[in-house]
Specification:
Elements lengths: L1 H20 L14 H30 L49
Length: about 110
Amino acid sequence: MASFLQYSARRFLQTSARRAAHIEGPSAVSGGEEGGYKVWRNLTFFVAFPSIALCMAHCYMAHNKKEHERPPFVKYDYMYIRTKRFPWGDGNKSLFHNPHVNALPDGYEEIEEH
């Protein structure tokens, strides 16, 4: 009896998986080239490019909305530890150092305002 139930369950799962995997008509994964590229082309033009444009507009407007303020410098013992000098520049600044945002071990650099 148990083997009959096991056989029935296995057969049901195999046939339902076959039915779920069957694809009707043209699609991007059906193997034929009956129009699957059209879906991706339309998604590119009508979803991807407008999304990129909206994100660019949002970033531009958010950047121009207010002037960015520096966070206050707090000298913690575990931050800004330099056990070895960086191999470039004066050895104290990281490779992508931004003097407006990144602090040195003694505090922020003085920035000339234009």
